[in-house]
Amino acid sequence: MHEICYNISSRYQKYITHSISRKKKQMNKIFIASLYLLIFTFTLHAKSFSMHQNSITFNAPDGFLTMSPELIQIKYPKGNPPANVLTNESTESTIAYDIRAKSLPQSQIEETGKAFESAYKRVVAGFKLNSNKIVQISGQKWIQMEFISNTIDSEVYNIFLVTGYKGKMLIFNLNTTLKEFNKYESAFRKSIQSIILK
């Protein structure tokens, strides 16, 4: 009788121990999932981005996150990719930004804009110019060229921005597939107006 009671008690203890262990594992999973959700939500709404030791800042549309260096290499396989890229969840809309060593004085903005247009007509697949103008952002002149280009499976709308900055060339390229253009056009234009140079 004692042996039977012991067996039952032993099994009950094992059952209780297993149940507690299982509940702990479930609670750990819930905690980890909640933590990931909290981190993702915080990142999702961290709209302000900067470069060049915070002397260049701008706001990105909601939901845009930093693209990893590995994904940048895949998306820009031809070499000399941009140093910084933000992307939405689908990766079909991006904001690339970088500083290049070549200088671009404000006095050369107009002629450089024409040179870019001429070069892009020759080298960009499916190039269709929408506009090429000089705009004022953060107190200085920028080239703003908008055009459509082709990828393997889609057409892409590009808003290409260039100016000189501290003896170098500052470049932004905001692009999206035509499928997502209506969704992001307004947000992209707000991002452009949010650029601050210090």
Q: What's the CATH topology label of the largest domain?
A: Protein Transport Mog1p, Chain A
In the predicted model, the low-confidence regions spanning at least 5 consecutive residues are: 1-20, 28-46
Number of helices: 4
CATH architecture of the largest domain: 3-Layer(aba) Sandwich
Report the count of strand segments.
Answer: 10
How many strands, what sense, and barrel or not for the largest sheet?
Answer: 7 strands, antiparallel
Structural class by helix and strand composition: alpha+beta
Radius of gyration over C-alpha positions, nearest whole angstrom: 26 Å
Strand content: 25-35%
Helix-strand pattern: HEEEHEEHEEEEHE
**pLDDT averaged residue by residue:** 83
CATH class identity of the largest domain: Alpha Beta
How many separate domains make up the residues? Answer: 2
Helix content: 40-55%
Reading side by side through the largest sheet, how are the strands ordered?
3-4-5-9-8-7-6
Choose one word for the global shape.
Answer: globular
CATH superfamily label of the largest domain: Mog1/PsbP, alpha/beta/alpha sandwich
Distance between the termini: 86 Å
Quaternary arrangement of the chains shown?
single chain
